[in-house]
Amino acid sequence: MLKWLALGGVWLGMLATGAVAQSVTPVPSLDASRFLGTWFEIARLPNGAEKKCVGDAFMTYASDYKKGSFQIVDSCKRKDGTQNVRNRNGRRADKIGDGKLKVQTIWPFSAKYWIVGVGPDYAWALLATPNRKKLWVLSKTAVLPADQLLAADAMASSQGFNVGKLVTVSQAP
To answer: For residue 1, is it within any domain?
Structure first.
């Protein structure tokens, strides 16, 4: 009994200091028609899937024949000059219309990706994993104006992301 009380005290202490990770919050309402199209990677948290990418990274979201589902094409330029292209399928994670997405690379496995922020007129968006291990700052244009990048960084920071670790992605003019 004393052991369980001690463990409970440790857990409460972790909760009070913020050591227990809280999940990020998706946008409450995602306008899917405005989210479709090509998004340029402006910045990202380093991740294994893109460690060989050196620039010209983008994601294209296209509507699928099934309601609520979409096709994704990710592309980036590698160090050797070739393109790394991945095709994936996605869908809304639930029916309430928020920013929760499920993306499948190899059947039957899927991963959770959430839209955790969008800029005015969907000029930029923040795509992330709920555990904060991955984050992308995306823009509808190859260059995101400094004031909008600051707004995106502030929103990501308010969700608990370490924006100091973001890597800038170069885009060809």
So the answer is: no
- Domain ranges, residue 136: 25-168
CA atoms of 92 and 32, how far apart (whole Å)? 9
120 three-state secondary structure: helix
In a domain, 124, yes or no: yes
The verdict on residue 40 lying in a domain is yes
Q: Cα separation of 85 and 108, whole Å?
A: 20
Q: pLDDT, tens digit, for every residue of 25-71?
A: 999 999 989 999 999 999 999 998 888 999 999 999 999 877 778 99
Distances in Å between the Cα of 36 and the Cα atoms of 61, 94, 97, 108 are 5, 18, 14, 24
Q: How many domains does the chain have?
A: 1
Helix (H) or strand (E) holding 153: helix 146-158
pTM comes to 0.85
